Amino acid sequence: MTSKRITQHPVLDIPEGNNVSFTWNGNRLEGREGEMLSSALFANGVQIFGHHHKDNSPQGIFCANGQCSQCLVIADGLPVKSCMTPLREGMKVESVEGLPKVPEDDNIPTFEDIDSQIKDVDVLIIGGGPAGLSAAIELGKLNIKTLIVDDKDRLGGKLVLQTHKFFGSVEDSHAGTRGFEIGHILEKKLAELSSVEIWLETTAVGVFSDKVVGVVRENIKDGSNGNKAHSKYIKIRPQKMLVATGAREKMLPFPGNTLPGVYGAGAFQTLVNRDLVKSSERVLIVGGGNVGIIAGYHAIQAGIEVVAVIEGLPEVGGYKVHADKLERLGVPIYTRHTVLSANGKDAVESVTIALLDDKWKAIKGTEKTFKVDTVLIAVGLSPVNEFYLKAKDWGMDVYSAGDAQEIAEASAAMFTGKIEGIRIAKSLGVYNGDIPDEWISKAAVLKSRPGVPLSEDALSALRSYCRDNKKDSDGGSNDAVNGSGSVENGVMPVFHCTQEIPCNPCTSVCEEGIIKTQDDKITGLPYLTDIKKCKGCMNCVAICPGLAATLVDYRKDAQNPTVTLPYELWRDTVEKGQLVTITDVKGEIMGDYPVERVVANKKKFPGTLLVQVKMGKDVAKKAIGIKFQKFPIESIDVPDTSALPDEAVICRCERVTAGEIRSAIRNGVRDVNQLKGINRTGMGSCGSKTCRTMVLAIFRDEGIDLKEVTERTDRPLFVEVPFGTLAGMKG
User: Fold this and answer.
1) Could you tell me which of 615, 717, 588 has the C-alpha nearest to residue 327?
2) Which stretch, 51-55, 430-434, 591-595, has highest mean pLDDT?
3) How much is the pTM?
4) Of 126, 311, 580, 711, which has the highest C-beta tally within 10 A?
5) Tens-digit pLDDT profile for residues 406-419
6) Are 31 and 38 within 8 A, CB to CB?
7) Where do the domains of the chain lie, and which CATH numbers do they carry?
8) Taking a C-beta distance cutoff of 8 angstroms, is the pair 28, 21 a contact?
């Protein structure tokens, strides 16, 4: 099999893990010791993990985050989630063909007493992502006995998957620093606090009426079983609990939506950014929010072609600077479009999209079909909040932070974590002060929606406002705002951001202190207070998370100034003398220009190259991007799209279609629990985590007020647990 390992990356270091051998359906393969089985299989070109017992449909991954059970395989005789099971030397891994069989085992196991093992802690934090880590740091500073449990093998949560630079401010949310690096920063701070204990590879599975939380801790080696690693069920009794469990991805109903190759953007980022596996060759992304747009950028960094991003709304919902940098690289964004079907027999071979009318119906005759092997779904997130809700039911003193509280950016999650950490400390009587108002206001700003992109006229009005009302403290002339003004014998940055978002790292790194934002707000657009003081340090270009700043230098040649452009792809594509295709902010090609010089400050701004070209003074200020994808995006023959949406699978675990659910609703069903009894909707091993939102959407589509619908009854266990683990079996 051909290896799908990523061997070069413009931002990430290539790991040098120990290779181990394992078998897949009897064939010997190699993988990296400790990586998840799903990633090891993908790295070996295996994307079909088995076939469903109901209709023999091929099964692959969807979430790669332990939330669904789509990636089930048999490992050493036991059914396991491949995305949560680390690879070991000599593992025998098999596909699941039909229903997994109970393994034959004549060995008599030994058991330990689990009832007497209850761990008391002041605070239990479920989730070691940005919110959980930030809360633990505040609690640790106050010497409060805190335990963090996380089901992954490392801290950081979704930060681990983020290779792009964060927005916000440098001081408060590490703006201009890449997500995975922020995870390291938070982890280092936490390591200095002795009152915080960390349990990795530990899954919270239930919250019970006696106010005890059950967790399963993996890979325990305690000497009780010949020092052989085993799982252990442990009860935790916290005084206070913080749920910082993040979010799970939503799915869309369309024919072919469960084919291998259709999966969530988070799963994609897990494969390409955490495990450096080139999971795809050609992708189409459904969803123009930040998650989808960023996934497209990550795909290009991983050497994967992005055919398009499609979005149902008239405008993308993510930050415009994110969308702009993707379009500048050569990725088209189709707004008012939807996906009609994913096409293929055993895996995705193509995808068909169409334009939407004002009633959100596909317009016949506008279909396009693209040859792809992957369709990434990025249509929103749902909070993983069942632990919080059940703890509230049982009367526990429970708090939530991050996406478990409200879906927002990771920078906002860090602030909500800090705030909830202090709230918990106050409730314990350890902290007597008030939560800083500044924290609360900044959290609100970081959660806010992006502003409306400004037109050229609106930008001109803003420049006039700043010019008339903002004089720098030294009395310098304020003759440049957002790149306006004339300085044909000096140097100046040009800012190509036209939308208010919480972001101002350029103001922090300017060595001359001449970059400000409108009204000094974090969401204000940047401008220069005195163009004549710019020395051309290029810091603002290098740190900008949206790659929306350039530098135009007239000092050596006023007619053909040097333009410095940010670039985060491979150095060998922009070596000195090479012709590069320059684009404007809209992605329109301005021409081909030879590279004059490449500047890289690996220590201060790792992963960002500053590429310099010479351009005519009449176009220099408009240049912002370097086009990378230059292949034509052409539609192939459109297949038959007459398949009814009713054929879309809603419940992945039990293969229940939209038509089956709609039929039950039309026959009077108004109870989601009753649906389980009729057609097994939501009865699968994932516990309806994936299908729930789609089921409720069908009720709405059928004209049913959701107030009339009885919701599912959530009962522990929220996560699958082997009976032997619950019984205290060793080994």
Assistant:
1) 588
2) 591-595
3) 0.92
4) 126
5) 999 999 999 999 99
6) no
7) 19-101+251-379 (3.50.50.60), 118-247+384-447 (3.50.50.60), 456-626 (no CATH), 645-708 (1.10.10.1100)
8) yes
